[in-house]
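Hey, can you fold this one?
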Amino acid sequence: MIRRLFCPHLRCGPVELTEPEAHHARHVLRLKPGDAVELFDESGQTGEGVIVSVERRSVQVKLTTIRPAGWIAPIDVFAALPKGERSDWMIEKLSEIGVRTFTPLLTRRGILERLRAGRMERWQRIAIESAKQSRRAGVMRIGKETTLEEALAACESQQAFMLTPGDDPAPLLSVLPVPGRETSLFIGPEGGWTDDESERMRSAGLTPARLTATILRVETAAVVAAALVACQLVVHLSGTRR
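Sure. Predicted structure:
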């Protein structure tokens, strides 16, 4: 299989890889001049080329063809952060599924402190590595931490769902009315939404929905919800292409 590398912006001709990608190409993949590679960028474009030079601190590729941006699933996830490094796993899996954006959500019962720049950079690296492995189009964008009000304003034109446990909300799959439409998923903290947060989301038009009969961790709920929507999109696209 042709090796896949990330480049922020593609153009035909000589392209110098970023330092992390050059290190990966040189020391992990052990690529040499003449080896064929595929490059992909943030927007979803892909291109094919060959390694032309491998130096101590740089790797250069000659890109010969560029293909238009591929389809990216119109799924945006707003989620409270789980504790510890479980958020890294969540970022990796949401990226694999094909989620368009992930935004950390500041909630009353969740983690309230602002994120350090290093953590955001780490998540972006995880998203890039996941994009390589899964061969998805583009790279999942990582948004800055946001308040519930800011998140609701950002998705007011989308179909949006607030995930909540219990028997009252309908199952998520039963309330997804428009396959292929932009979809936002709101995942609460381990302590659950407050009554005030739930009321604000309902007033903004979000549909309450549940996933399973069990109580899921934040990262599990985010991945399961995104996977269900992504699977529905695949079924919809398969039907429209017949």
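The CA atoms of residues 200 and 207 lie 12 Å apart. Let me know if you want another pass with a different chain boundary.
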